[in-house]
Amino acid sequence: MNTNLESEKKLSTVGPPKSTLGVIGWMRKNLFSTWYNVILTILSAVVIFYTFKGTLTWIFATAEWSVISANYKLFFVGQYPPEQLWRIWLALAVFSLLFGISAGIWRGTIIRLAAVLAILLLINLVIPFTSGNSKMWLAINLATIVVGFFIGPLLPKNKAVALIGWVLSFPIVIFLVSGFGVLTTVKTTIWGGFLLTLLISIVAIVFAFPIGILLALGRTSKLPIIKYFCIIFIEFVRGVPLITVLFMAQLMLPLFFPEGVEINNVLRVMIACTLFTSAYMAENVRGGLQSLPNGQYEAAKAIGLNPVQSMTFIIMPQALRTVIPAIVGQSISMFKDTSLVAIVGLMDIVGIAQTVKSNPEFLGKIMETYLFVALCFWIVAYSMSYASRRLEKTLGVGER
């Protein structure tokens, strides 16, 4: 028996382990193992080299980024009155404080998102074309994140405080942006830029989530009126493109309100985007409900829970956990689809880009404009995707 063990040890030491192949060994095994792999590797290297060379040359040598620096404020807040910009900065400070507090309490994913926000603030702080007043507010927001990070763990019942803060942040921000007569009213007709893109997408995602849950439950209801109403709504909305829903909201939504009640364009678009997203959310949630085995329902009944309690505490949490990727994917899709609101006359960041490229002073600078817009969308979309992956890993989604 000892002889067998010694022979196994000798065999296990023959040849280098995979982890000690090194860079050259890895390349030889994966890139140059056969003659056709050698050809493909060389061709791919040539294509990648010239692609990156051309792209980097254009970005750092050819492109004229003055179109961005000259319209930097316009891209982010549109025509928002300059004397009222302190309200936008204060709204950002609210989120900075909440990110800092949450990062100090929960660490993990939220601390990385807070770091991304801090890096973006720092980049805007050091770029040369940011005004002095803006630099002051950027520094205040950076300090707010740091202060929130350290005071978050010290707050009594800090987790409850943080959650309440996130819930209240949305009405606070809407109040600061609009004013509602308490502050100087800023009409929605002059909201614009990336601010408008974020507001529309956040409203659509936040309100579509509970509506989608109700529609999913209604579709599985045994009451025919509720069931078929939900089915008709979901299938009708999912059967038409978003741009059609936006036009319907612009033209038909005022018909459902009494005379004298006017709904501005921004609110119409928010309602349309919310209803559109809720239909897709409903199908995502229904898929999660159907993925659960019947044993979960039977177990809830066995411990004496009524249907409402079993759905609230047993079924729905598990269903939502399984469809986190689908829900976040739909949220990202909605965020990107807000670019369509430019077609109905709203000046979001894409509408601003279309206006800027039409300016005779910036003719021929289309690539610079749309690359900057794409970068803004990518930063937010990738942050949402990253947070989703971290949340899935934390909850063990997909693991058995």
Describe it for me?
It contains 18 helices and no strands. By secondary structure, it is mainly α. The protein folds into two domains: 103 residues, no CATH class; 207 residues, MetI-like (MetI-like fold), CATH 1.10.3720.10. Helix 6 packs antiparallel against helix 9 and helix 10 packs antiparallel against helix 17. The chain is globular, with a radius of gyration of 27 Å.
Describe the structure in brief.
This protein is mostly helical and 400 residues long.
List the topology elements.
Elements: H1 2-12, H2 22-30, H3 35-62, H4 66-70, H5 72-77, H6 85-106, H7 108-126, H8 132-151, H9 158-178, H10 193-219, H11 224-238, H12 242-251, H13 265-291, H14 294-302, H15 307-322, H16 324-337, H17 349-357, H18 366-395
Entry keywords:
mainly alpha, MetI-like fold, 400 residues, 2 domains, 18 helices
Low-confidence segments: 7-19
Number of domains: 2
Q: What would the CATH topology of the largest domain be?
A: MetI-like fold
Percent helix: over 70%
Estimated structural class: mainly alpha
- Number of helical segments? 18
CATH architecture of the largest domain: Orthogonal Bundle
- Let me know the CATH homologous superfamily of the largest domain: MetI-like
Please describe the biggest sheet, giving its number of strands, its sense, and whether it closes into a barrel: none
Gyration radius (Cα, Å) is 27 Å
Between the first and last Cα atoms, what is the distance in angstroms?
A: 38 Å
